[in-house]
Design brief:
The protein is elongated, with a radius of gyration of 23 Å. The chain is built from ten helices and three strands, in the order H-H-H-H-H-E-E-H-E-H-H-H-H. It has one domain (2-215). It has helices spanning 7-10, 15-25, 28-58, 73-78, 82-117, 151-155, 163-168, 171-186, 189-202, 207-215; strands spanning 126-129, 136-139, 158-162. It is mostly helical.
C-alpha cells in the first residue's frame, strides 16, 4: 500500500480546481449540494484516516491503553514510518476535534444571540430593527422558546432588516430583498454553510470548497 495509505489526507488538495469547475459549469443549487457533500465526505475520510493511522502506529507502544491486537504487524508494515505518523496523528486529531467543537459552540452562541436580539418584537415573518446601519439577513429557526422569545419566532426562520435599509429601497427593491432572504430560509442555506465550515475545520485543504459554497 505504501503512500496510498495517506490518499484520504491528500485528496482534499483537489478542492480548488473542483470548486472552480463547479462554479463555472453547474447551476448554483446543484453546485451547492455537490460541493457540500464532497466537502463532508472528504473531511470524514481524512479524519478516519488520521484515526486509523494513530491506532496502527501507536497501539503497541508502551503505555498506550489501546489493545495490541489493533496494530497488526502486517498492517504496520504497509504504513510508512508507522510510529512517526501515528504519533503525529494524535495532535492532528486533537486539533480537528477542538476546531470543530469551537465552531459548533460559536455557531450556537451567535444563533442564540441573534434570536435574543429580537425579543420583544412581534413574532412576524419580517423583523424590523431600528438601526442607522443598512443591513438584512435571514435568521434560521432554532431559538429557544421562552426567555423573551416568542414561540412563533423560535419555531421558524425570520427575515431581519433594519430601518436604514428599508428607507433606502423602493417598493420593488424591498420585494426583491425579502424574496432573496426568504429563499435562504426556504433552502436552509445555513445548513450547507455550517457543514462546509466544519469540513474546512477538519481539513484546511477544503477551505476552497467552503468559499465556493458561500458564493454559490
Amino acid at each position: 500500500m505504501g503512500v496510498f495509505v495517506f490518499l484520504p489526507l491528500i485528496l482534499p488538495l483537489t478542492a480548488r480546481p473542483v470548486a472552480r469547475l463547479a462554479e463555472q459549469h453547474l447551476h448554483p443549487r446543484t453546485a451547492t449540494r455537490l460541493l457540500t457533500v464532497l466537502a463532508v465526505v472528504l473531511a470524514l475520510c481524512s479524519t478516519v484516516c488520521l484515526a486509523l493511522v494513530m491506532v496502527v502506529g501507536t497501539a503497541q507502544l508502551p503505555g498506550n491503553p489501546l489493545p495490541d491486537g489493533w496494530s497488526d504487524p502486517e498492517v504496520r508494515a504497509a504504513v510508512p514510518y508507522d510510529e512517526i505518523v501515528g504519533k503525529a496523528a494524535i495532535p492532528a486529531l486533537c486539533a480537528v476535534v477542538v476546531a470543530c467543537a469551537r465552531t459548533m459552540r460559536r455557531h450556537g452562541r451567535v444563533r442564540r444571540q441573534a434570536h435574543r436580539a429580537l425579543a420583544g418584537l412581534r413574532g412576524t415573518e419580517v423583523a424590523v430593527l431600528p438601526d442607522a446601519v443598512p443591513y438584512a439577513y435571514a435568521l434560521p429557526p432554532g431559538g429557544r422558546r421562552g426567555g423573551g422569545l416568542s414561540s412563533r419566532g423560535a419555531g421558524r426562520g425570520r427575515v431581519v432588516v433594519t430601518t436604514a435599509l428599508l428607507d433606502r429601497l423602493r417598493p420593488a427593491e424591498r420585494r426583491a430583498l425579502f424574496a432573496h432572504e426568504r429563499a435562504h430560509l426556504a433552502a436552509r442555506h445555513d445548513r450547507f454553510l455550517l457543514a462546509v465550515q466544519l469540513a474546512a475545520r477538519a481539513n484546511p485543504f477544503l477551505r476552497p470548497l467552503r468559499t465556493a459554497v458561500a458564493y454559490t
